[in-house]
Amino acid sequence: MIPKPFKQTLKYNELLMPKEHRQAVDSANMELWNDLMTINTNNPNVQINIDHVVKDFGHSYAIDMKIYCKNPGVQQQLDAAYEHNMRLPRFTKHEHFEAMVNGY
Q1: Residue of 31, 65, 64, 28 whose CA lies nearest to 48
Q2: pTM here?
Q3: DSSP character for 3?
Q4: Chain center to CA of 72
Q5: Please, which residues have CB within 8 angstroms of residue 80's CB and are 6 or more apart in sequence?
Q6: Could you read off the pLDDT tens digit of each residue along the chain, which spans 104 residues?
Q7: How far is CA 31 from CA 19, 27, 28, 88, 102, in A?
Q8: 40-57: string of b/e by CB count within 10 Å (b at 16+)?
Q9: What b/e readout covers 61-85, taking b as 16+ CB neighbours within 10 angstroms?
Q10: Are 88 and 65 in contact (CB under 8 A)?
Q11: 3-state SS of 90-101?
């Protein structure tokens, strides 16, 4: 059975994020994405939701992911994958940071 696609929501305007920052976030979390794909494949009837959110640390920021579903057993697997593999590279805020966060 083909699993349901991830339902992803960006809580920021990705077009205003520097390309190098996007690439760093993507490459830092490859292991997490591999685990999420495995969980998704093993649970094809469960809708997995991912919210991509900005964590503001004052002079720097990071892109975090809130991963959730309605199935408690699958949620435990998602939480374990997140805790084991999530990386939050920090970036210095850029000139378009406010527009990126407030303009999505």
Answers
A1: 65
A2: 0.91
A3: P
A4: 20
A5: none
A6: 789 999 999 999 999 999 999 999 999 999 999 999 999 999 999 999 999 999 999 999 999 999 999 999 999 999 999 999 999 999 999 999 999 999 76
A7: 21, 9, 8, 13, 30
A8: beebeebbbebebbbeee
A9: bbbbbebebeeeebeebbeebbeeb
A10: no
A11: CEECCCCHHHHH
Tracing tokens 């696609």 back to the chain, one arrives at: 5
Tokens 């083909």 correspond to what residue? 2
1, two tokens? 């059975």
CB 17 within 8 A of CB 92: no
Run of H or E including 65: strand 60-68
Joined tokens for residue 50: 């991912």
Q: Is 13 exposed, middle or buried (0-12, 13-18, 19+ CB in 10 A)?
A: middle
